[in-house]
Write a structure and sequence with these properties.
With 162 residues, the chain is mainly alpha-helical. The protein has one domain: Globin-like, CATH 1.10.490.10. It contains seven helices and no strands. The protein is globular and about 35 Å long. 25% of the residues are buried.
């Protein structure tokens, strides 16, 4: 659950970071690949394309914090697509660490404990929705009828990563 205070902190810190979107994305991917060099192989597109896509997705989530019902279907779709890219549960952890580090570097003294906790809550919500969708479940844990079936290897990989 993301509180009203956390939403406010995420929105305010995003307003400071978003004008530097390209630099922030570059910093993020540098850190991500430092934490897990094998992840670089998962990015077929140039990072000059991927960075802006990442920042637009984060901006969409931040803009939708007041009405998550509008945003979460898009987040679920992204989670489903990431299965095809070979994303596993452990990648979500690495991504979260890289994102928080990037925010800390970008916001400097404005990256307070409260801001970190707020982004952690938002990322926890988003990543859990993406993982549920990747596993073919909805927010209640029920199977999603519209999800393409995951391979047995992918399902096993996701279960092991838990």
């Amino acid at each position: 659950m993301v509180t009203a205070r956390q939403k406010s902190l995420v929105e305010a810190s995003w307003a400071k970071v978003s004008p530097m979107a390209l630099q922030v994305a570059e910093l993020f991917y540098d850190r991500l690949f430092e934490l897990d060099p094998l992840l670089e192989e998962k990015f077929e597109r140039e990072l000059t394309e991927q960075g802006p896509r990442l920042m637009r997705a984060v901006g969409m989530v931040v803009a939708g914090l007041d009405d998550l019902n509008d945003v979460l279907p898009v987040v679920r779709d992204i989670g489903r697509r990431h299965v095809g890219y070979g994303v596993t549960m452990s990648h979500y952890t690495t991504f979260g660490k890289a994102w928080l580090w990037t925010l800390e570097q970008s916001l400097a003294e404005d990256f307070t404990t409260s801001v970190k906790d707020a982004w952690t809550a938002v990322y926890g919500l988003v990543s859990s929705v993406m993982i549920e969708a990747a596993e073919g479940r909805d927010a209640r844990g029920e199977p999603e009828s519209s999800v393409r079936h995951l391979s047995a290897a992918t399902r096993a990989s996701l279960r092991q990563a838990r």
